[in-house]
Amino acid sequence: MDTALQHLTDQINTAAAQRTPLRIRGGGSKDFYGEAPQGELLDTKAYHGILSYEPSELVVTVRAGTPLAELEAALAEKGQCLAFEPPRFGNLSGTCGGMVAAGLSGPARASVGGVRDYVLGVQLINGRGEHLTFGGQVMKNVAGYDVSRLMVGALGTLGLLTEISLKVLPVAPAEATLVFDLDQASALAQLHRWGAQPLPLNASCWVRDDTAANAPELLFVRLRGAIAAVESACTKMLAEVPGRRLDNAQAGPDWSACRDLKLPFFTAVSPEPTALWRLSLPPTAPVLDLPWPQLVEWHGGQRWLRAPESAREPLCQAASAVGGSAGLFMAASDAATTAKNGFAPLTPAVEQIHRRLKAEFDPAGIFNPGRMYADI
């Protein structure tokens, strides 16, 4: 067994025997996400490296401690990418294990799918010190419950990811970004109309630009696909709604900033500290009548708000009324501070599933205790 892997296994076995909590950490780029990390550090960075990459098969297998930047650079050399655009939050230390454990996706999520849709298989060490393999390196590799995808978004509470196999995709031959002056209601309605047409929509972002004169309300739409399809869509959309096409050299960094929550909407300093809230809604949900600044992504499915932490009740009520949920993504104080009760409450039935899964994978309760919910 690899020395780094043996060290991780030994640390887990010792912690299980002593019931010592372990705080799983890769690059630490998402320490702010979820409940406050606690316990003895279990560092994955030493277990790194790209184990196999078959560009012709669109499959790559990496160790969990591999820096995300290293993987993306290797894919870029072959004209390929992680289509779900995992956010880095401006931090190049993030790891592939943390990417899967957090389960966060970027602007293209609504069009291409999320992290879960690209995980083919994983290896992990459970709370009994067993090194287990789930899934494989092809799409049809699961009979029964798909445990590999269960690990996406679990924040390390079920086990320590050691290896991950991912589906990758070629970089689109063409890309274009269009911008339209539209209020939020008009932008949502137009996105729904375009979504019903055979257009290569890839990402969208609506925001009120408070950094510009008169604070214009703008809808940005990114198109990706074959050259002919993108050019045809630009012509059609601009003929339907007055707007303009941005140069890719200008638009590219802005989409990266959107992915990493570095746009002025996320970074602007307000007179009073405000938290960053994330609302997950049906894309067809109407404009929410709320008094706080909003940024809308995923064709209406993800809505960010800058609001005080005390706004939990009205935000949760507004999201629930349209069939969605609200969660506190980042605390008001600073990006390194984790706020309590960040995730939307679980229903009793779902909570029981969480508890049973935790008991099966981590009977001693050592992995990231309370990271998702305080007592699970």
Quick gist of this model?
Helices cover 28% and strands 24% of the residues. By secondary structure, it is of the alpha+beta class.
Topology:
Blueprint: H1 3-18, E1 22-25, E2 40-43, E3 50-54, E4 59-63, H2 68-77, E5 80-81, H3 96-102, H4 109-112, E6 119-125, E7 131-135, H5 147-150, E8 160-167, E9 169-170, E10 174-181, H6 184-195, E11 201-208, E12 217-225, H7 227-240, E13 244-246, H8 248-259, H9 264-267, E14 275-280, E15 294-297, E16 302-307, H10 312-321, E17 325-330, H11 348-361
Question: What does this entry look like structurally?
Answer:
The chain is an alpha+beta fold. The chain has eleven helices and 17 strands. It has three domains: 180 residues, Uridine Diphospho-n-acetylenolpyruvylglucosamine Reductase, domain 3 (2-Layer Sandwich), CATH 3.30.465; 91 residues, Alpha-Beta Plaits (2-Layer Sandwich); 61 residues, Alpha-Beta Plaits (2-Layer Sandwich), CATH 3.30.70. Helices cover 28% and strands 24% of the residues. The strands form four sheets. It has an eight-stranded antiparallel sheet. The chain is globular and about 65 Å long.
Question: Uncertain runs with pLDDT below 50, 5 residues or more?
Answer: 335-339
Average per-residue pLDDT, rounded, comes to: 92
* Rg on CA atoms, Å: 21 Å
Number of helices: 11
DSSP helix fraction: 25-40%
CATH topological fold name of the largest domain: Uridine Diphospho-n-acetylenolpyruvylglucosamine Reductase, domain 3
How are the strands of the biggest sheet laid out side by side?
13-10-12-11-15-16-14-17
- Report the CATH architecture of the largest domain: 2-Layer Sandwich
Q: State the order of secondary-structure elements, H for helix, E for strand.
A: HEEEEHEHHEEHEEEHEEHEHHEEEHEH
Termini, distance in Å?
A: 32 Å
